[in-house]
Amino acid sequence: MKPTSVKCFLDSNIILYLNENDGTYKKDIVTNILLPKPFVSSQVIFECLNVCLKKFKYPKEKAIMFVLYLFETCTVVSEEKETCILALDLFSKYHFQPYDSKIVASALNSGCRTLYSEDMQNGLVVNNKLTITNPFLQFN
Fold first, then answer.
1. Ranges of each domain in the chain
2. Does domain 8-120 fall into CATH 3.30.1830.10?
3. For the whole prediction, is pTM greater than 0.85?
């Protein structure tokens, strides 16, 4: 997968493949997606931190180093009141899970055209502006 110049947003379930062993195709895809400095929300950063601690059993210092790496390689956006209000609208309109609604709202408010996620409906176009894409499907 080649990096794209289109503004994109990453869900935590995509970013976390960076923790796989070297040479796995998913890790390679995510590494390429990181090249144009994608957008993430503070929620995504802390979801990654939580998974690193709870699922991967990383020591606190290693988990912190990973999220600091994300701060360097991604554009981190804050979640303002307007993002939360949009998230509630998306939750109602598209029936997303509550936290997914915040991620989609953050992507929209960041002007992104693509949201990379493995958990949401691949190909769904939200508000005629944002396409949810599972970057791994073309390799299955």
1. 8-120
2. no
3. yes
